[in-house]
Amino acid sequence: MTARAHIESLLRARKLDVTLTSSQPWNRRESAEDRAGTGVPGLDAELGGGLKRGQVSEIVGLRSAGRTAILCGVLAAAAARGEVVALVDTHDRFDPVSASAIGLDLSRLLWIRDMGDASRALKAMNLVLQAGGFGVVAFDLTDVPPHGLRSFPFTTWMRLSRVIEGSQTVAILLASEHLARSPGGV
Questions:
Q1: pTM of the predicted model as reported, rounded to 2 decimal places
Q2: Cα(59)–Cα(40) distance, rounded to whole angstroms?
Q3: Residue 69: closest CA among 59, 57, 78, 79
Q4: Would you give the DSSP letter of residue 171?
Q5: pLDDT in tens, 158-180
């Protein structure tokens, strides 16, 4: 086996083969299991069946734009499929009563709340993603001040993407503005 073939086989074994270049276009067929429905039929249609698993996606909007309602719908849909979900709630803004009223089974939710600062919340998010076994993991950064967000290293979102790459987890960032600019997620 040549050195190149050996390296390529190692990359494939670790599911990093999407970084390989070849004369043939990469043609990975997606199945329905590669998407996680949001619980909002119109949104699922626009997203081609839901959010991509193994990638970071963002729900972005101003206050009262419906971003939390969409997140609760995504969490409820995942819990209804029998998945365990997690929410890293940086400033303890999540309302479990309202989420339960729209159908979220709270017994399937790991709620990490009131982290005090964004860096501690980021560590919690990373630990949850590394633990695996979650269908959806959400990171609520909506009330983090801009200077707190700028304190994250530039590579933060890329590292989070790498942690879940190839997994069945959907990572969601909830924010007032785009943060990750993930090419794979939405």
A1: 0.78
A2: 14
A3: 59
A4: E
A5: 888 889 988 999 999 998 887 77
